[in-house]
Amino acid sequence: MFAVENGLQGDPRLKAISDAIRVVPHFPKTGIMFQDITTLLLDPVAFKHVVDIFVDRYKHMNISLVAGVEARGFIFGPPIALAIGAKFVPLRKPGKLPGRVLSEEYELEYGSDRLEMSVEAVKSDERALIIDDLVATGGTLSASINLLERAGAEVVECACVVGLPKFKGQCKLKGKPLYVLVEPREFDDITLYN
Amino acid sequence: MSENEVKDPRIDGIKTKIRVVPDFPKKGIMFQDITTLLLDPKAFKDTIDLFVERYRHMNISVVAGIEARGFIFGAPIALAIGAKFVPLRKPKKLPGEIIFEEYELEYGSDRLEMHVEAVDSGDRALVVDDLIATGGTLCAAMNLLRRVGAEVVECACVIELPELNGRERLEGKPLYVLVEYR
Q1: By CB count within 10 A, which of A43, A80, B72, B153 is most buried?
Q2: What ipTM does this complex have?
């Protein structure tokens, strides 16, 4: 579900957020129009809009845990967690987390990767939100959902700043709702001069 | 912080939330695990508040966070003080035009990258990471910022390992830490 479908139609903050994202063509390889959120982070007002919109949505949903996917999920997740009084749980590349971890493999275009979570991060009866900057195939988010569910948490929703249009409507990921702020920007002449 | 300063009462609460994991990632290293701090909303908030209280009136225009744990502390600080957040990243993650700095590891070296257009002269920068050990990464971060003409006002870390003398690598730049681990 996109923000515009859920009451934020015409909200000027969404345009400000979208305008602040830079499209870099053919990164990391030919054919990929990379949605660069670092330019959004250079705009404190737009960055704050992102956090405010997510906080407004989640502050009354009894979220006890915000899980952020390494590394860009570490930028958006902690401010949300702090504002809603939830714990922050980093979901990390292999070998980074000390102590006992759960590990979940997921597919890449070529090969696979793994995501890890500390087993002690999740207590019983946790209601979790998963955050990443962008959702494309949903592979990373699906792996994240698996990690949290294997640890016994209830995943309430997945949230991303940018998402492909296929996630409109009631599209779910592994049965979990997805909330997205904006669609990917197109690369055009305007972007060149941004 | 010096011995003469009265310690903020929030500091002890923060220190107790940091888990020390022996022999990670390899034997002999006492790993300072901040993930347990992040599991305590009050202690995490106290950590950010302490930094924000220090920096909100210092006219900081850029908070540079070192990948990846520097993102966790740097981004909330940037938001709270109204500064730009600039991620300093491992190689090949940033899509735009970058500059890089190499720094030494125990075996070999690594690189830190920054988007050139993110920062310029006239920016007053704060560098944030979870921990300072030898100071190699922070030094690389400072170099990146200085090369584009920014002024590095201070480096801020949650934890310092003073026995590794990282402070000396910062070439006189001030370092502010909340917790020391000896």
Answers
A1: B72
A2: 0.96
pLDDT tens-place string over residues B105-163: 877 899 999 999 999 999 999 999 999 999 999 999 999 999 999 999 999 999 999 99
pLDDT tens track, chain A, 194 positions: 999 999 999 999 999 999 999 999 999 999 999 999 999 999 999 999 999 999 999 999 999 999 999 999 999 999 999 999 999 999 999 999 999 999 999 998 778 999 999 999 999 899 999 999 999 999 999 999 999 999 999 999 999 999 999 999 988 999 999 999 999 998 875 555 44
Amino acid at A13: R
Shortest CA distance from B65: residue in chain A: A75
The answer to whether residue B19 is catalytic is no
Give residue for tokens 């996917």.
Answer: A69
Strand partners, B66: B88
Surface of B (41-70) touching A: CB under 8 A? 41, 44-45, 48, 65, 67-69
**How many angstroms separate the first and last alpha carbons of chain A?**
28
Give the CA distances from residue B86 to residues A147, B68, B79, B129, in Å, rounded to whole numbers and listed in that order: 29, 12, 12, 12
Of the candidates A28, A36, A60, the residue with the CA atom closest to the CA atom of residue A127: A60
Query: Catalytic one among B3, B5, B97, B106?
Result: B106
**Phi and psi (nearest 5°) for A126?**
-85, 140
Find out whether the peptide bond into A71 is cis, omega within 30 degrees of 0. yes
Residue type, A73: G
Chain A residues with CB under 8 Å of B39 CB are 87-89, 120-121
Instruction: Tell whether B100 is within 8 A of chain A (Cβ).
Output: no
Cβ-defined contact of B78 to A47 (cutoff 8 Å): yes
Rounded to whole angstroms, the maximal C-alpha distance in chain A is 51
**By the 8 A CB rule, do A138 and A11 touch?**
no
